[in-house]
Write a structure and sequence with these properties.
By secondary structure, this protein is mainly β. The protein has a five-stranded antiparallel β-sheet, with helices on one face. A four-stranded antiparallel β-sheet has the order 4-3-2-29, with no helix packed on it. The protein contains one helix and 29 strands. The protein has a single domain, classed as 7 Propeller (Methylamine Dehydrogenase, Chain H).
């Protein structure tokens, strides 16, 4: 990762990649108990992408306030995607679609700093989704999926070239990664023993009832849940053997309802952003199927969502009246959702990607 100058007064300097990032991560973990819950998203602006950070104050009546705006030193412009922002164990990443790069992030106290940049492999362009494994960063764009050692940002593993430019999201499990393609496919990408991408992608055969516009995805250990959003069976479970178990979604189906984006909750709960239904649609599953439970209203059109590391909070980005917002929901012991706070406008028409740091 190319080192970048950090914000004054927080990280004095981001030294030579791996050592500096490891130290930052250790500091962040040590301070974790004293930190607030932060919700991170991106402006996705074509000219100047910015990380937009909100703080959730849960003392008394919860308040979701704008905490920080951080230039990523790149350009946005992605669309029809999810997972462009990720955060894990004090470190995070945000992709710059228009600059063919990924910006590294680190948390210090209640602030986020830019600590460096990862450039895509030559010929790979337009990154629109990232995922974080135990020790790797995964990136997919319009023509490549690739992995990097994390947090050093050093290229590692195979560069998987994609003939289809419609990638919506990349996610990673224990032995395989997956890429959803809006054109109607899901790809399985094997992982090596060290956790990097191991070779060419294998298409997963989707049933006719669940093959229309795959968008969001998330892993439960080594089982993938994804949303063929415009299908009657608008949620599906896939195991490592590429066996697909479709699940009927809310009715009436698309275009009235379309679970589009996915976040894994605790136990057997999955949350999906239902854009036309302006709701979070909740599913339950086991390893071989599942059932739609119910939909919880959102005050606009949801475009991505995430669950906090402790499983107690869900954040969703949505648009209403031509403006982007963030909403925070509490999650009870049974996976139920309660809307607790929404953000004020931050001058962004529509956010892209959302992550939670605790």
């Amino acid at each position: 990762m190319t080192a970048a100058k950090s914000a004054p007064g927080r990280i004095a300097r981001a030294g030579a990649a791996l050592l500096a990032l490891t130290l930052v991560s250790a500091l962040a973990a040590a301070n974790e108990r004293d930190q607030s819950l932060l919700v991170l998203t991106s402006s996705n602006a074509q000219g100047r992408n910015e990380l937009v950070v909100f703080k959730l104050d849960t003392a008394g009546t919860p308040v979701l306030s704008l905490n920080q705006i951080v230039p990523t030193d790149g350009a946005g412009g992605a669309s029809g995607n999810a997972g462009i922002v990720q955060f894990q164990a004090g470190l995070g990443a945000v992709a710059n679609f228009g600059s063919n790069s990924v910006t590294g992030l680190a948390r210090q106290g209640d602030y986020i700093d830019v600590i460096g940049h990862v450039n895509l492999a030559p010929g790979c362009v337009q990154p629109d989704s990232v995922a974080l494994g135990a020790n790797h960063l995964f990136v997919v764009g319009s023509n490549c999926a690739q992995s990097f050692q994390w947090p050093s940002g050093r290229a590692d593993g195979a560069v998987v070239h994609l003939a289809d430019a419609s990638a919506a999201q990349i996610a990673v499990g224990q032995t395989w990664a997956a890429v959803t393609l809006k054109s109607g496919s899901v790809l399985q990408l094997p992982l090596t023993g060290s956790g990097s991408l191991g070779g060419a992608a294998t298409p997963i055969t989707l049933p006719a009832t669940a093959d229309d516009t795959p968008l969001g995805e998330a892993f439960w250990n080594d089982t993938l849940g994804f949303t063929p959003a415009h299908s009657a069976d608008s949620f599906a479970i896939v195991n490592r053997n590429r066996t697909v178990s479709p699940v009927t979604g809310p009715t009436p189906p698309y275009p009235s309802n379309a679970p589009c984006w996915v976040a894994k909750g605790g136990g057997n709960v999955w949350y999906t952003g239902n854009s036309p239904g302006q709701a979070i649609s909740v599913f339950f599953s086991d390893g071989a199927g599942g059932a739609f439970y119910k939909s919880v209203p959102v005050p606009g059109v949801p475009t991505d969502l995430t669950v906090s590391p402790d499983g107690r909070w869900l954040a969703v980005i949505y648009t209403a009246g031509g403006t982007g917002y963030v909403a925070a929901f509490s999650i009870d012991a049974y996976g139920g959702l309660t809307l607790v706070a929404t953000s004020e406008p931050a001058g962004v028409a529509a956010f892209s990607g959302v992550a939670i740091s605790q």
